[in-house]
């Protein structure tokens, strides 16, 4: 190995002299340590880069190297999927025994020409002639999206062509063919001239050759890996499994008979691999309801969003299957990644299919078919035909006047014609429109569909649109639009899908566990990996179950997608290497970083990037040196990345990390997660942990909860691989404490993840002496979890510990957070005076700079929290006006901070207060604001906002109350927070009373009242009893004693808590009952002193009600 060239390839040419002076040879490289390199004078960055590169070298690299060009980072080999064909001339040995050598040479020549002609006709590559054998590749040096199909078509054509050849003795020739598909490593060309071939490493060529030996004369035999990619394009016969030389397990083989008679290409390709529809009953039901409305003339739009492979097209197909027996028109539109800027491409393709265009049709025939199609539905087809014909590139030959309008007028008239066609179809029958992969629709098509969405609101039309999450449809706010976001399947649903695919035969536990872990609920991945395992020979059937006979292969890009992705990359062979380096950087990469990594001459690099953009593989913003490039599709980036050898990937990641740290410190500071990723993949694990931690803290500061969880979890995973030391434990404590904050915001105070993070942090703190700066936030986090779970005794103890620790430390910011825990604890306990006591102490300690502590402890600002809790507490204590002022102050402060979690805290408690004040309009305003924030990035709050809106909407009438009951009950079942749940039970029970469903309300109140004794969370205890009393009065029973008992208990609790407002409410209810029973004096004596205590809020409903009753009682 040339050490100087190797160092140059790493961008470290300046150290070549040092290596030579110290006699560092290829044999020495594996024995070099970090300390050795430091002794040679290499800084940390270059040391890490050299060690990562050494780790990626094998013995072959040491002793039989390929030179590394220091200026271009030339890739010597790559990984890719190939379909390999092996052709054999049957009986060639017998022929050579009785034919003259010259005649035999002529036969071989004709045979080779015939074979090569059919291979090249479909753009295959003849890799090698071996006398009577021919080796061919489909997918190298250039890939197409349908390589397996091309290979099989070529195979059938070869057998037919060779069968037409005869020897000079008039003997017929015959060929047999084997085809296999699989992952290989393709290296440099070896040999020269006719002997030149591509060096391919992998079992696929050998498999193709072995399959050829199974074939009869004139037959094509394919591997299961090839069959998987063909769908039902060909008629096939299962040849069973065969023991082939060189393969440890039996190999499945298939015989190709002919092309199939499938109705359409889509059905042929997808029919076999059609996924079982699992876990989507609710979505299908929504679509069927949309169809019902559409048929009634109320047009609907159903938007189906989800990541690739999540099952969007499968659900759309399920809908078409359900409607197959109905009288309707089906129009299907498909977006294409290759035509995102081709005006009206999906629309014109639909018209081509509907008109029945054939490839061999002349322009005249196509025009006739178009005329017939438009005449069926367009009132004035003569004006529409030239417009649409122009889009379809059909000359009208003077039959129609050429449109003379400008581009915009022409487009408008084209839109009018297309919408007129839709209206004409809808006038005859209901129409189902399916627009799939709308994320690939061109702007003109999207503009047309904007108008379609508007128009169909008054037509019997259902438009179903599928798209990936990166697409933002403009129609979501329309009243006739329904949005369905497809989530990944849960583990149980994935298990059901696996069971369907295995025909009810259970897989081995370890196999199923790996499938579930690797596929993570993506239906396509579940299906493809399960099928790969079932068809790989790694499992054997034993009775009614499978048993493992090998190891599970790793999940990569599904083989069904490999060819199409590689085809896009191969279109720019000369600059593919730049795409690969860019792919290692990421989905988006800057010119500066790419240039520093690739170390290529600037003119050459710019030319390569220009070609990348021209090939529509990437978008470019700005111009070098400020240019930013983005891969057009994430899967294209993945394919480019996966085509690199693993050792090369690690080397590039390590180089990128070094370049970022040394040459782009500002970006490293602003985007530590980028540096963390490259350090991780480059093997710089110690550095990577630090960068993941820093990235998590930055994400916490921005309230980017999902990102923070991902970054910090990654850091913890890597940290676990490092040696156990006290320093490592301290790093873990910091990571766990940082992780608790976004877990709390994203998954709720009660979540197991939150408790696990803080429990682990406390455990490590205790192991090393309980340093205050780390122990305090650990205990604070645990307090949050126990409080939310209703374990109030433990929560109170932890809150007291926090005060003790904070006072001992002398740190005012810690003491503020200790009081923060105290006022929230007392709030849950219903100790309203104590709440105000601790909020007052908190305000005395609060400084604006303490806002940053929200990210260390609770995820929201302490002053906002104190003000909001004090607002509710003041209402409880009997100061409704002061309470309202404090609630609004909390909202104002939170919005001033521009901190969503703090805003949500203020809004949610303001909603509580407005409900107590019976101010539905103000409550609705707060809910709408909460809902917007929740949908913009705080999904944990969405159920709360939904429940609260349902409550406010239910106040209008008995019918609305009945409708609201279901929504509230569903949301209530999902909410376990002790602070919120009691309040929501009160709301639900109140709505039940309005709906005349007292029994349902009482059934909800009973366990909530019983739970108070268990948890000690008494904040809603008085209200729970008061509402129970109201509902009992509204029930069929004539017995007033149960209601009276609940009212008395409500009054007792309220007075224990000094909750004058709750005392007033309960006393008003009891006074009304006693008055009804005839105890008017007793009722007056009960209510009068309670009412007289108040000094404000006399315009609030509770005080107005009490005043009216007192007037009636006098």
Can you put this structure into words, describing what you see?
The chain has 50 helices and 18 strands. The protein is an alpha/beta fold and 1114 residues long. It has six domains: 3-63, Transcription Factor, Ets-1 (DNA polymerase, domain 1, Orthogonal Bundle), CATH 1.10.150.50; 78-270, Alpha-Beta Plaits (2-Layer Sandwich), CATH 3.30.70; 281-485, P-loop containing nucleotide triphosphate hydrolases (Rossmann fold); 491-548; 561-681, Arc Repressor Mutant, subunit A (Orthogonal Bundle), CATH 1.10.10; 946-1113, Tetratricopeptide repeat domain (Serine Threonine Protein Phosphatase 5, Tetratricopeptide repeat, Alpha Horseshoe), CATH 1.25.40.10. The strands form four sheets. Strands 1, 2, 3, 4, 5, 6, 7 and 8 form an eight-stranded mixed beta sheet that branches. Strand 2 (125-130) and strand 3 (133-138) form a beta hairpin. Mean pLDDT is 86; it is low at 58-75, 191-196 and 263-267.
Descriptors for this entry?
alpha/beta, 50 helices, 1114 residues, DNA polymerase, domain 1, five-stranded parallel beta sheet, Alpha-Beta Plaits
What's this entry about, in short?
This protein is 60% helix and 10% strand.
Radius of gyration: 37 Å
Instruction: Using the coordinates above, name the CATH class of the largest domain.
Output: Alpha Beta
* CATH T-level fold name of the largest domain: Rossmann fold
Question: pLDDT below 50 for ≥5 consecutive residues: which ranges?
Answer: 58-75, 191-196, 263-267
Shape: globular
Q: Report the β-strand fraction as a percent range.
A: 5-15%
**CATH superfamily heading of the largest domain:** P-loop containing nucleotide triphosphate hydrolases
Sheet of most strands: 8 strands, mixed
Number of domain units: 6
In the CATH classification, which architecture of the largest domain applies? 3-Layer(aba) Sandwich
